[in-house]
Amino acid sequence: MVISDRDHPLIAAIQGGLPLVSRPYADLARRIGWSEEQVINRIGEMQRSGIIKRFGVIVRHHELGYRANAMVVWDVPEQRLDEVGSTLGDHPCVTLCYQRPRRLPDWPYNLFSMIHGRSREQVSAQVKQLVRELGLDGIPHEILFSGQRFKQRGARYQ
Amino acid sequence: MLAETLQPEFADPEALTDLEKRLLNEYQQGLPLSPTPFADMAEHLGTTEAEVLRILDDMQQQGVISRVGPVFKPKQAGASTLAAVAVAPEELDAVAAFISAFDEVNHNYERLHRLNLWFVVTASDQQRVDQVLAEIEAHCGQPVLVLPLLKHFHIDLGFPLW
Lengths: 158, 162
Prior knowledge:
The complex is a heterodimer.
Chain A: H1 8-14, H2 24-32, H3 36-48, E1 52-59, E2 68-74, H4 81-90, E3 94-99, E4 111-117, H5 120-134, E5 141-152
Antiparallel strand pairs in A: 2-4, 2-5, 3-4
Chain B: H1 18-26, H2 37-45, H3 49-62, E1 65-72, E2 79-85, H4 92-100, E3 105-111, E4 117-123, H5 126-140, E5 145-147, E6 151-152
Antiparallel strand pairs in B: 2-4, 2-5, 3-4
């Protein structure tokens, strides 16, 4: 499906979150002049087509005590990249997993993963376990813990 | 925007009730698309609609959840990249402020590494992204490592908390 101009009021109305009332879709529909059924159907279509990746409770890890967010970077040989990327990306403790270019000689790492934990110790233990579990012994990696957050703004759709 | 140190401390996960934990864990991915989603959730969780709404409202007020709503796939049009730069520790705050001031920068983090400042630049086209990166590089007097996304290996299913 393609997003059209007529979707913009709906997107604008839902991207800040649903109203916490008994019939939230009816409430949104009234605001933008649609029917409740139209709102529900269109959100469903956006989910099925992947424009909405997920639709639910958006947890802020940091506020829940998951303060040790670490970027774990791996130097994976090209022939193992898809295999390692998929197994790592599917693991429940990994929240993001991307291939990015190496920048030699400064930066030898081509696979980036994000791991959240309650403490640095917990994240380090988690990484050790990942290495064991997924057979990543021969693959050099580094853990970059986060320090100060200077700016964090969720990507807006429009 | 100010650094996180000004935010209040919140929510020890251990202090959450079982109902609160289930609510967080089971509804990150999909909310019922029925006219009464919160009543449906309450029925599934063995509680009342009023209780579900109260918990979500409290958590939203406290900042434990940012919203109950959608995560959109990043827009296909436009250009974006992760970038990193090594900054002298005594200049970190000032350089970070310079970088954060760009409207095109939506994330800007310190990381404990020689490359200690990491940020994301997003603009409507690659030319503008390059321009912002060039201005930052000129300001820092250090090479900026540009690390655009090449391939995505993760499907966002939310995050198991317990």
